[in-house]
Design goal:
Structural class: alpha/beta
Radius of gyration: 23 Å
Number of strands: 22
Number of helices: 17
Region (Disordered): 254-294
Domain CobB/CobQ-like glutamine amidotransferase: 304-486
Helix content: 25-40%
Function: Catalyzes the ATP-dependent amidation of the two carboxylate groups at positions a and c of hydrogenobyrinate, using either L-glutamine or ammonia as the nitrogen source.
Strand order of the largest sheet: 3-2-4-1-5-6-7
Strand content: 15-25%
Shape: elongated
EC number: 6.3.5.9
Oligomer: single chain
Distance between the termini: 54 Å
InterPro entries: CbiA/CobB_synth, Class_I_gatase-like, CobQ/CobB/MinD/ParA_Nub-bd_dom, GATase_3, P-loop_NTPase
Length: 500
């Protein structure tokens, strides 16, 4: 097989985008299986996922042995897609990018923004279309023709037919597709699906499945290896165009981001109105005038405790990389198992996950709940997103949590999902008031009240509201953000760790 080393630098690493006409067509099975199959053949595979999803990259990491990374043009801007891709693909022979939803689906009302098609164009990568052929025959040609011709800048280089019923069915499909000129690079038969359990927010994360997740990834790899033309897929990947510019680097990103002033939290006000323009408001570095004297800095690298484990498995890899580049020592802890925070903890970051699934276990770990409450009471910085917000509440589904926030959380039947344009309402350890950022919400829970006296963010869509809490050194919100879009967030947080 041809490898990335044979064609040159990371800027020309062979790459494929695995897309589909719609969700549920089999993208995750094909993408994860292809990653596993190529890895099993000795290739260093760089795994990527279009969009904000945290769960699929966990399976990608299991398949490749490398960190799964997201490429989200809404959260980070289209201009960061190629640099972030190149950062993840350093030292790899090939990259596989799993798309999101249908090929041309993206942020609602924003055209191609955040779609798989947009990312494929930015990366100059050929697209492999995974088609659920279970209820189709000759019509598959019309479907593929439509996707091939819809946007001439998107190069569909092959098709993988999924859920094919029989040898005769395969013959009919192949004959129909001959007229399109698009090669069939794989046929996966209609069979018992690979066991990948789901629940209220999608697939069960890898961190919770252990041996079952390993078995699932191995099964996907075997399925793709048997049914797909791996040589043909690699050859198509090698046809990707070269990319200009440098790979993203956390240290360089911080250098180009102005040092943030340290400010004291201020009372919230009505959220500023984000400017409207093509693609909406862009993220801004968290800058602004200081309103308090700068305290004396502590010597050495502050320890930032990053929540992990089965209950808190959602985080973007660039967050820890930026914290490290800003001078912190990032140490992971598991709120389900650890009764103490890492020694010398100066700040805590608690990302997303499923605390609602583990509420009883989290509640039973009273020692750690008290430690986190104590850190927050001391004024040290604590950043919490979604699951982290629930954990900091007084209770979750009636079970005691950390009690940092005077709020109650509970499960809900209503799914809250979507991108958000946000403006910081209150000065905090992450951002100065007025800072614009983009985020994503994805949960089936409710926090009451939804905002504190000093809210974290103001948002306009789907309705104008404030949400989240800024109290002392605590910033807690439902909003998932990608810190690569505003590296100054990490610098500001670490500076607060040094001075709190």
């Amino acid at each position: 097989m041809v490898t990335g080393a044979a064609v040159g630098s990371v800027r020309s690493v062979p790459r494929l985008v695995i897309a589909a006409p719609a969700s549920g067509s089999g993208k995750t099975t094909v993408a994860t299986g292809l990653m596993a199959a190529l890895s099993a053949r000795g290739m260093a595979v760089s795994p990527h996922k279009v969009g904000p999803d945290y769960i699929d990259p966990g399976y990608h990491a299991l398949a490749t042995g490398r960190v799964g990374r997201n490429l989200d043009a809404y959260l980070c801007g289209a201009e960061l897609m190629a640099p972030l891709f190149a950062h993840g693909a350093r030292g790899c022979d090939i990259a596989v990018v799993e798309g999101v939803m249908g090929l041309f689906d993206g942020a609602s009302g924003e055209g191609e923004l955040a779609s798989t098609a947009q990312v494929a164009k930015v990366l100059r990568a050929p697209v492999v279309l995974v088609v659920d052929a279970s209820a189709q025959a000759r019509s598959v040609a019309a479907l593929v023709h439509g996707f091939v011709s819809f946007d001439p800048e998107v190069r569909v280089g092959g098709v993988i037919l999924n859920k094919v019923g029989s040898d005769r069915h395969e013959v009919v499909l192949r004959e129909a597709l001959e007229a399109t000129g698009i090669p069939v690079l794989g046929v996966l038969r209609r069979a018992a699906p690979v066991e990948t359990p789901s629940r209220h927010l999608g697939l069960v994360p890898v961190a919770e499945r252990a041996a079952a997740a390993v078995a699932a990834v191995e099964a996907m790899g075997a399925q793709v290896a048997e049914g797909c033309d791996l040589e043909g897929l690699v050859a198509l990947a090698c046809s990707a165009g070269s990319l200009a510019g440098a790979a993203w680097d956390a240290g360089e990103a911080l250098v180009s981001s102005p040092p943030p002033p340290l400010t004291s939290p201020s009372p919230g006000a009505a959220p500023p109105e984000p400017p409207v323009g093509p693609g909406g408001p862009r993220p801004q570095a968290p800058d602004g005038p200081a309103v308090a004297a700068t305290p004396v800095k502590k010597a050495g690298s502050p320890v930032v405790a990053l929540a992990g484990g089965a209950a808190f498995s959602f985080s973007y890899a660039e967050q820890a990389e930026l914290l490290t580049a800003a001078g912190a020592e990032v140490v992971t802890f598991d709120p389900l198992r650890d009764e103490e925070l890492p020694e010398g903890t100066s700040g805590v970051v608690i990302g997303g996950g499923f605390p609602e699934v583990y509420a009883s276990e989290l509640s039973a770990n009273e020692a750690l709940r008290k430690r986190i409450s104590g850190v927050a009471a001391s004024g040290a910085p604590v950043a919490a997103e979604c699951a982290g917000l629930l954990y900091l509440c007084r209770e979750l589904d009636g079970m005691p949590m950390c009690g940092v926030l005077d709020a109650s959380a509970r499960m809900s039947e209503r799914l809250t999902l979507g991108y958000r344009d946000a403006v910081a309402v209150s000065d905090s350890v992450l951002a100065a008031s007025g800072t614009r950022m983009r985020g994503h919400e994805f949960h089936r829970t409710v926090v009451e009240p939804g905002a504190g006296a000093s809210p974290a963010w103001g948002v306009r869509v789907p309705e104008r509201r404030v949400e989240g809490f800024v109290e002392g050194g605590v910033h807690a919100s439902y909003l998932h953000t990608h810190w690569a879009s505003a590296p100054g967030v990490a610098r500001r947080f670490v500076e607060r760790c040094r001075t709190s």
